[in-house]
Design brief:
Length: 226
């Protein structure tokens, strides 16, 4: 039986990826005359600002260093301070149910801690997580499994005891390399290829259904809550 569930943040707990991309799209058009397309959002989702900045500088031969562009992108981002960013429907209920049943929980993101921690606190997530790991707390980012391996070690859990929820190919690659049971969640506006996941779900409500809960192999089915 599995006893630990780890969550990605962007696209899994909050529907942030498309909104964040729109801010990047606006900055690139206004400052560099670069017109990013919708498919670019999928290209960069699941990665870090640093990786995206390097790619943009190389692709469009921009007259700026990747480090400087990364700083611009970070300074221009207001998404994580916005009240428009809310939890995915059903996410809080799912987390409360897990913790009520003794399942340990963690948040593992490639996004910087200055964004994740303030937003998680505002959304009431901090008290629902046993561990939070952000992009600047590890040396290697997704698709490297370091973040997930570190989280499972902090939770004193073996990889096979863990379920990991992801929404992107990059995140799923990291989760699979960590040795966990993977769930591809397709609840965000940006729908990505999650075919590599062990299980795919359209919503948190689906994860709570008896049949899917049984496949997750977590303690006590949700039908036993009342």
């Amino acid at each position: 039986m599995r006893s630990c569930v780890l969550f990605d943040f962007d696209g899994v707990l909050v529907d942030s990826e498309w909104l964040a991309f729109c801010q990047t799209q606006t900055l690139m058009a206004e400052r560099y005359g670069v017109r990013l397309q919708a498919e670019d959002c999928r290209r960069y989702s699941g990665g870090t600002e640093e990786r995206m900045a390097r790619s943009l500088v190389e692709r469009f031969a921009l007259p700026v260093t990747p480090q400087a562009l990364c700083a611009e992108l970070s300074a221009a981002s207001t998404l994580y301070e916005s009240d428009a960013l809310t939890l995915m429907p059903g996410a809080r209920d799912f987390l409360v149910r897990l913790r009520r049943q003794g399942v340990r929980t963690g948040l593992v993101s490639s996004t910087a801690s200055r964004h994740i921690l303030s937003t998680a606190n505002r959304l009431g997530l901090v008290s629902l997580m046993d561990v939070i790991l952000c992009g600047d707390m590890v040396h290697r980012h997704k698709p490297d499994p370091e973040g997930y391996r570190t989280a499972t070690a902090l939770l004193h859990a073996a990889p096979e005891e863990c379920v990991i929820l992801e929404d992107s190919p990059v995140g799923l690659q990291a989760a699979r390399a960590a040795g966990a049971f993977t769930v591809g969640l397709c609840q965000s506006r940006l729908r990505q290829d999650v075919s590599a996941a062990d299980l795919r779900a359209a919503s948190y409500a689906e994860l709570c259904s008896p049949a899917v809960w049984a496949r997750l192999d977590l303690p006590a089915g949700p039908e036993s809550d009342g």
